[in-house]
Design the sequence.
């Protein structure tokens, strides 16, 4: 059970602690890395900036005294998901340099949807935790025992479903790479019928 306190009574927004300042700075770096991830036209660079983004989120979890979630973030997302993405890029022979064809031209529509989704998420989180404060200077509240019990009792089915989706993504990348290789080895206009004229 996460221990929640009324730390707002001891200090306000005009007297932030060192942990809160570090949280804000890491959040800005993470936000900048996320922007570069979705705006760059180089697929490999996008994957590498995604590593920075996910690593920044892990640091944020550590600052919120949720060490179990932080290490899960590092081991699963940084250590598995990003590696899976890089393997998918290699298997599908994605270009290393700039990829102008990767831009669909719907940047304004995507930006509108992203801003609307972010605003809705921020509004829901702020409305749900408006009067809740976490004592960042106190003992660790998000312990491994409490978080692990909640994860593997209440969220075990979505957790296993995510692993199946990752496996399906890897199999799909292998199938796409083999299909592209087969199309490249067979000439488009080649006549595959046996030559019977010379045998007559």
Sequence:
């Amino acid at each position: 059970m996460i221990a929640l306190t009324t730390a707002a009574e001891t200090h306000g927004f005009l007297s932030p602690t060192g942990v809160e300042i570090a949280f804000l700075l890491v959040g800005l770096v993470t936000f900048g890395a996320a922007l570069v991830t979705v705006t760059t036209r180089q697929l490999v660079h996008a994957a590498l900036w995604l590593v920075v983004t996910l690593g920044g989120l892990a640091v944020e979890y550590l600052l919120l005294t949720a060490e179990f979630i932080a290490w899960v973030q590092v081991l699963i997302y940084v250590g598995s998901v990003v590696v899976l993405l890089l393997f998918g890029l290699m298997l599908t022979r994605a270009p290393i340099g700039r990829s102008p064809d990767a831009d669909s031209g719907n940047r304004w529509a995507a930006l509108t949807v992203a801003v609307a989704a972010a605003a809705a998420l921020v509004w829901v989180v702020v409305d749900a935790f408006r009067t809740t404060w976490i004592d960042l200077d106190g003992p660790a509240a998000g312990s491994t025992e409490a978080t692990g019990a909640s994860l593997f009792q209440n969220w075990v089915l979505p957790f296993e479903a995510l692993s199946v989706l990752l496996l399906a993504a890897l199999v799909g990348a292998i199938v796409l790479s083999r299909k592209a290789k087969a199309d490249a080895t067979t000439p488009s206009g080649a006549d595959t019928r046996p030559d019977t004229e010379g045998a007559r």
The longest helix spans residues 156-185. Residues 1-8 have pLDDT under 50 and may be disordered. The chain has six helices and no strands.
